[in-house]
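User: Here's a protein and a ligand (adenosine-5'-diphosphate). What would the complex look like?
Assistant: Let me lay out the input and then the predicted complex.
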Amino acid sequence: MKSLPIRIKITMWFTAAILVVIFFTYFIVFHVHHQIIQKTIRDNLIETVEHNVDEVEYYTNIEQPVASNETDYIRIYQNGYLEIDDDFLDQVNEVYTTLYNADMDFIYGENPIPGQSVEVDFADAKVQQVRVNGVLYYIFDRKLTAEGLKGLWLRGIVSEHQGADHMSDVIRLSLFFLPILAVFSAAGGYLLTKKMLSPIQAISGSASQIGSGNDLGRRIDLGPGEDELHQLAETFNEMFRRLEQSFEAERQFTSDVSHELRTPVSVILAQCEFSLEEQRSSEEYELALQTIKRQGRKMSRMICDMLDFTRLEMRTDSYVCEQVDMTELVESVCSDMALIQENGITLRCETENGICLHGNRELMTRLLTNLIGNAYRYGKENGHILVCLKRNGKEIELSVTDNGIGISKEDQTKIFRRFYQADSSRSGNGAGLGLSMVEQITKFHGGSIRLESEPGKGSVFILTFSDIL
Ligand code: ADP
């Protein structure tokens, strides 16, 4: 059952449901119909017998009945004559009426049960039932009370089978059409389900082709439509789009990383070969080792930055967020970094009290260190740096201003890219990952970053975060 295709399962299910409904309908129709028929039979029986009550008369004088109608049945009864009118319905609609005396001796009429008298006591104006030879009969008796007729009984008898002939056309038609209807609806359901499910086959076909062929550029095309399956296809296409993007990003990242690592590795190898080629002076060895150390540091920082990048991009739980006292954090980082005093550059810090942010302390420290580090690196001799933390309406604004070399309009759009360096001569151990990291950390905290800069005059990096904890 589990291995059956969905369209077969659905068809089987609703065919079964239709059959249940049909059987239930049959049951109701037959039951109600039977009740109605039986009531009609009984009503018919009562009506016929009641009609016949007035058709039996008693006369003391023979001339009276003869004069009334020559076709009537007349017979001697006690001291007079019984006249059975020719309107007497002794057999109509299969209702048989018989006239008996009190001893149940037959006087006139018809009996529906040939050769058998019905041994049921008389009961005036009451429908009784009796089963003879497996057939159910309804009996209705009337005691005649007119002058001279006392002691006579009229008995009407009708078989329940009389109703069989009354089976309505609706029943006959339903018996014929309902099974045909069931077959038609099962076939229609199968075709409809097959048609409705065909887009799923198209989706699964495309998905497996994309999966097997690694062709992430492929999309599922179901044609125009807005139903659930088209929405599903659109969801799949969206997923493929994202997958394609992230594969592309990963490919780009891998290529960038290998490209960036190649240079320090080549430098290290070259220095090693140079040192081992022949006997070198101690100064030359020292210089080679200094270079190797610098390149090694550069690689180490790059690897650390790349790992942090991956953690940030994957948004894993490795960075736990908590309430960070930004005032305290900014002041502490600034007081540490003010000690650098590179190129006579001074660092000043202006903070508003009690500014807190829901975030990660380590990342926020990294963000600020990167920005201040850049301000030193790309600053002017005896220049100054200003770090400012304040509230701006419902937002927290953190800015790092320097009066350094500034950034050209063209470079302003590129410096947040990974490995991009506008001025590599000043970058030191940097690999062009610092600002990308700053942007990632800002995004991680739901903030935004903007840059205002003019070449030769300096730059200001402004970060904005939401103040809602
Ligand atoms: P790195 O400093 O390692 O080169 P970053 O991503 O931190 O990498 O910076 C990218 C580039 O942006 C730098 O190479 C530099 O050219 C430019 N830049 C960053 N900060 C400043 C600044 N405060 N003033 C001038 N240029 C800057």
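Summary: The two ends are 54 Å apart (CA to CA).
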